[in-house]
Amino acid sequence: MVHTSKSWLSTALLPALLLPALALAEEAAAPPPTLNSGDTAWMLTATALVLFMTLPGLALFYGGMVRAKNTLSIFMQCFAITAVVTVLWSLYGYSLAFSDGGENNAWIGGMSKAFLAGIKGDSLNGTIPETVFLTFQLTFAIITPALIIGAFAERMKFSAMLLFMAGWVTLVYFPICHWVWGGGWMMNMGVLDYAGGTVVHVNAGIAGLVTAVVLGKRKGFPHVAMPPHSLPLTVMGAGMLWVGWFGFNAGSAVAANGAAGMAMVVTQLATAMAALAWMFMEWLAHGKPSALGLTTGAVAGLVAITPASGFVGPMGALALGGVAGVVCFIGATTLKRKMGYDDSLDAFGVHGIGGIIGAMLTGVFASPGLGGIGFSKELDMAGQIWVQGVSVASTGIYCAIVSYILLKVIDGLMGLRVDEESESTGLDIALHGERGYNY
Vertex 358, ends 355 and 363: CA angle to 5°? Predict the structure, then answer.
């Protein structure tokens, strides 16, 4: 009888005793990640496209919109930001954004990958080399602070700009990137941000608005006319942004697959609809459609579809683009005039407002009933919209507070703004001793 009880007990406990061994066997049997050459080739291309958006795309887009005496300063700022952010990303930015932060992982990554430690040629992130993944993410870190330039163009010291951008990417971009994409609290909450509605555009737009307010208006604004000096440069830059954005959105699939294909389609549709919506709004309001309006509307559509590009269907993209074109037109014209701030090139009006629209409407058009792929973490539409709203508000508040503190500290240390004589002469000569044009 005792022998029978022991046998029964052994039989009952045997599965529990074998579970750890079975788990280890399954883990050992699971195939290790392998490099996919198709995915890698696409991500190499997407990385180059996103860098192309800043250099030369954004440089031309912004450079054409300022007065001729400040053109070179825009190009200098774009190039300098590219260099500064690249170095900081390799030293600690990539690690803070994408490594495990231990107990603090909800808020910031750790330093295990500082100085790109442990990253070798054969290191993988999914099916692509980690070197490609980190460089792809670097291009996002570069363009985000570069977008802020549009808000303070023609009046900030180059030295102050460098210090502000170094501090801003460190204290604002790297943490928020971790919150959304690196395993932080927004990712765990279920936020949908495919390619940077909050991380890139709301972030840059809010920082731009704060910077414009702290710096104050340009000399003569709004009574002195300050038209773009070269609309062909701006149109050319906008075209480069449109093309490069396919790397931005479709590249965020991190694979050459159907998700990348759909992201490309919806990016094209939303951009086209927003460009037309802005153009027709301007046509109705002012009697003529302008090249500047058409291209700015296209950028507004690109911004708005960014967070939604992996989650919405074609008809949702058209609707989202139409809303973005109309609302951003109102924000970049009526709102700025009524509130009286000098956002030189409409960084907030396009990127801030467009990013908010895109982030919030992602919570609507991700619905399977509207052609989307569904919501996150078994949320319904109301729940997803709430999560999107929390992410937008949190990003905006954190960015605004830290940006304001940074600007005030730098202003106290070295001053933010050029003197009146330098502003009148133009930043090209005053700060760089060169001219954009020598006729």
Answer: 135
Query: What are 2's two structure tokens?
Result: 């005792």
The number of helix segments (H) and strand segments (E) in the chain equals 20, 2
Taking the whole predicted model, whether its pTM rises above 0.85 is answered as yes
CB atoms within 10 A of CB 419: 11
Is the CB of residue 358 less than 8 Å from the CB of residue 303?
yes
Rounded Cα distance between 285 and 278, Å, is 10
Question: Any idea where the domains of the chain sit in the sequence?
Answer: 37-432
What residue type is assigned to position 414 of the chain? M
The answer to whether the beta carbons of residues 141 and 168 sit under 8 Å apart is no
Q: Where are the beta strands (DSSP E) in 86-166?
A: 124-125, 128-129
Peptide bond into 15 cis (omega under 30): no
CA atoms within 13 A on the CB side of 186: 28
Around 371, how many Cα atoms within 13 Å sit in the side-chain half-sphere? 14
Lookup: tokens for 351: 């990127």
Ranges of beta strands (E only) in 54-211 are 124-125, 128-129
At residue 47 the predicted structure's pLDDT band, cuts being 50, 70 and 90, is very high
Distance CA 296, CA 282 (A): 11
Beta strands in 5-130, from DSSP E residues, in sequence order: 124-125, 128-129
Measured in whole angstroms, how far is the alpha carbon of residue 377 from the centre of its chain?
Answer: 23
User: Does an H or E element contain 250, and which?
Assistant: helix 231-250
The H or E element containing residue 213 is helix 203-215
- Write down the residue that tokens 């170095």 correspond to: 87
At residue 376, the 3 state secondary structure works out as coil
* Alpha helical stretches, state H, 331-380: 336-339, 347, 353-365
114 exposure class (CB count in 10 Å sphere: 0-12, 13-18, 19+): middle
- CATH class of the domain whose range is 37-432: mainly alpha
* Tens digits of residue pLDDT in 386-435: 999 999 999 999 999 999 999 999 999 999 999 999 999 999 999 999 99
What SS3 class is residue 125?
A: strand
